[in-house]
Each structure stands twice: as C-alpha cells, then as structure tokens.
Amino acid sequence: MANTERLLALQNVREAKKAIDEARSPQGLASEQSELLENIYVDLDCQEDTLIKEAIDEKIDGLRAAGTRLAESAKKISKDIEKLKKVADLVEKAAKAIKIFADLASNVGKLGLL
Amino acid sequence: MRPLRTVNFLLILILLATVLMLPGCTGVLTSSQVKEVATFAAAAKAYGTFPGAVIRSHGQLRASQKILQATTFTSGDTALRQVDAAVDIRRELDQRATAADSALGVLNDYAALLVALTADTYTNDLQGSAEALGGSIDRGIARYNDLRKTNLESFGAIAAAGVRGAGGVYIRHKQAEALKKAVISADPVIDAMINEVEKLLALYLSPDDLKNMKLTITNSGPAPEQLNLIRNVATDLRATYKRIADNSGGKQDVEAALLTADSLTNADNTIQLAVKALQAAETYRMAHRKLADNITQRQWLRNSIDQVKALVVEVNAANKTKKKIESQ
Predict the structure, then answer these.
(1) How many C-beta neighbours within 10 Å does residue A54 have?
(2) Over the Cα atoms of chain B, what is R_g?
C-alpha cells in the first residue's frame, strides 16, 4: 500500500472509531444496539491493528533486505580476518624456522665443526 | 654487545625496508584507528536495540488501551474479544520487535568484525615467538663462545626485534588494507540500512517531530511515512479514560486512572526514544561516512572523529530513555 493511501485509510478508521464511540455515549441505548456498536468498534480497532502491522512489516522487510547486504559485507570481512590469521601463522612459522636454524648453528658450534 | 644505538639503527633499517617493500600506500594500522573503530563499535552495539524497543513499547501501549476500552463495554462477549485482541497485538508487535532486533543484529556483527579486524592478537602472538627466537639465538651464541673460547657478539635481540618488527609492520599493513576495504565497501550498505531504520522509526512520529531534524531521508526523495502511531494511542487512552470517568458517577476505580497515567508517561518516553533513535541513526550514518572518508587519508585520526563522539553521546541518551521505558 502506498504511504498516502495507508495514512488516509488509518485516518478514516480512526474517525469511524471516534464516531462509534460517540454514538455509544447516549444513555438508554438498547443492549442489542450497544453490543452492535461495541462490536463495530472492536472490528475497526482490529482494522487499525492490521494497517499498523502492514506498515511495520514493510519497513522490517526493507531492514532485512539491507541487512542481508551488510551480512554479505561482514562475510567478506570474516574472510579477511582468516587471511590475517594465516599471515600471522606464516610469520610465526618463519620465526620458528630461524629458531631451528639458530639451534642447529649452536649444535654445530658445540661439536666443534665451526 | 653492540652499542644500543647500532641495534636501534639496524632495527629502524629493517622496519623501514619492510614499510618500503609493502605494496600500495595504505600504510599500517595506527593506535588511533584501533581506538576509533572500538569507540564506533561500542556505540553501534547499543544502537541496534532502539527500534525494537519502540515497537515493543507501542505494542504494550495498544494492549493497555484495548484493555481499558474493554472495561467500558456492556457486552461480556465483546469485552472478551477486545481483551483477546489486546493479548494478540502485544504478542504480534513483540514478534516484530524481535524481528527488528534480529535484522539490526547485523550492525553488531559488522561492528564486532571491525574490532576483530583491528585487534592486537595477530601481532601479540608474534611477540611470543619472536622473543623465543631471540632467546634461542642468544643461548646458542653464548654456548658457542663458551665452547670455542670466542667472543662473538650476540644478535638474538636484533633478530627477534627484526622478526617482530618486520612481521608486525607487515601484519599491521595488511590489517589497515583490510579495514579500508571493509569500511569503504560497507558504507553504502550502512547508508541503506540506516535509511530503513529511519523509515521504521518515522512511522511512530508526526511531521512536526521530523520538521527540525536534519535527516537524509527527508532531504532527498519523498517524505517517509509518518503515521503518528504513539500519539494516536495516547489520544485513544485519554478518550477512553474520560468515558470511564464520565460513566462512573464519581465512583471510578483508581486502577483505570493509574493505568492511563502510566501509559501516557510511557507514550511520552516512547516518542522521546523514537526521536533520539532517529537522531542517533543519522549520526551513525555520518560517523560511518567520516570513518570511511578518513580511512583513505594518510594522516588520519590525529584527533578523535567528532561524529563518532556525537554518536556515543546520542546512543547513551537514547539508552537512558529506553531503560526508563523498560523499568515501567
């Protein structure tokens, strides 16, 4: 539903509710008349609920659609984080390799080969 | 041992060489970038719950109004229909609030990923292995000197510093590159997301509420749908309570008056929350835009970004109002 159409529909429902409420006011209404007016009021109130829920649902759908796009961006960031971890692991491995080399050099020295 | 000045000079050379060898000119991740991203992420985390809180509170208000209205009915069947409708609308709007929370949860995820991306863990892990390497080399040289009666200078410290420094600079450079890519590519999506948040919050407000707010959605394109939902409930609450009082013959129950007063207070707080959440949404958009703009500059974030500071202030203010509503 277009924005202006929904606003108009909501205004009409609310005006009708007000009119029904005023019609309930006079004392001495027959119980059937009161019940009829009260039922119409509840129907109109439910109609107002429906219009409100539709409006909220449309906006939440928009949020979800934008959220899906952001979730895709987040996925890419997660991949970059994984890559960073791999880089850190590689540097650590390189450091360990140098350590092994240093140990080896020390052992060679101990054996008097240098 | 080498004089300290020589060690420092060599270290600087290694780091300089690493920086010069890095492709592109993104530079390395700075502490001010890390701090700013963390501040932004903390404010972003709190923001995601505001729209849901507005929907939930509106559901509670409509349910209270229906219950109050039911007490004015003469037919038990119709009163029961209205009480059932009160239960339904509260549950249904609660579900929608949860859906909004869930949709906005991705903002939290995004913020948390930015923090993970700028974390120290990658370089801290490196510190341990570099120190172990330095110690190992020093021990090896000492053993060699001892056995061979030589006096070779230890280079453990410089090697450790080199690995730590070059590796750290390289990782920090990779982090800066990834952060730049992440924030720049997410910016239009954040913009679209904030548009949707603003459209949702505008439903609860009137054109008068939005008149003095400089919102991007009101400046470009058609005006957002404004149904004035909270004030409509407040109007109904007042009318219903008046009917109860008129029909009570001076013997009305205090509960109706209390429920009306509490609900009207809640309606005021919910309007305030919607307004503050809208302002904060706009600041969120600007703060992220500024983050994206500044991240591309070589010398950025010498001082804190004003928009990020404003976002923190606005989110804190909205959080106070949200807590007020939740405590009722």
Answers:
(1) 12
(2) 30
Nearest-neighbour CA in chain A from B4: distance (Å): 22
Alpha carbon distance B187, B179 (integer Å): 12
Helix (H) or strand (E) holding B301: none
Tokens of B286: 């600007």
| Residue A100, min C-alpha distance to chain B (Å) | 9
Q: What is the dihedral of CA B294, B300, B306, B311, to 10 degrees?
A: 60
At residue B150, the 3 state secondary structure works out as: coil
Cα within 13 Å of Cα(B279), Cβ side: 19
Locate the domains of chain A by residue range. 3-110
Interface test with A, best of B58, B65, B78 (most A CBs within 10 A): B78
Q: Would you give the distance in Å from CA A99 to the centre of its chain? A: 50
Query: How far, in Å, CA of B169 to CA of B121, rounded?
Result: 14
| B254 CB-side CA count, 13 A | 0
The span from the CA of B204 to the CA of B62, in Å, is 13
Q: Find which of A10, A84, A86, A108 to mutate to test the B interface (most B CBs within 10 Å of its CB).
A: A84
Model confidence pLDDT, tens digit, residues B253-265: 899 999 999 999 9
Q: Is there a contact between A77 and B239 if contact means CB atoms under 8 Å apart?
A: no
Q: Answer whether B75 sits within 8 Å of A85, measured CB to CB.
A: no
CB A69 within 8 A of CB B189: yes
Q: Tell me the whole-structure pTM to 2 decimals.
A: 0.81
- Residues in chain A with CB shorter than 8 Å from the CB of B93 are 53, 56
- Of all residues in chain B, the percent with pLDDT exceeding 90 is 43
Q: Report the alpha-carbon distance of residue B312 to residue B290 in Å, rounded.
A: 15
Would you say A55 and A6 are in contact if contact means Cβ atoms under 8 Å apart?
yes
For B90: left if phi > 0, alpha if psi spans -120 to 50, otherwise beta; the answer is alpha
The answer to whether the CB of B295 falls within 8 A of the CB of B183 is yes
Residue B142: CB atoms within 10 A of its CB come to 14
Question: In one letter, which amino acid is B106?
Answer: V
pLDDT digits (tens, 9 = 90+) for A54-103: 999 999 999 999 999 899 988 888 988 888 888 778 777 776 666 666 66
Cβ proximity of B258 and B241 under 8 Å: no
Q: Phi and psi at residue B304, in whole multiples of 5°?
A: -65, 145
Cβ contacts of A67 within 8 Å, gap of 6 or more: B103, B104, B105, B106, B193
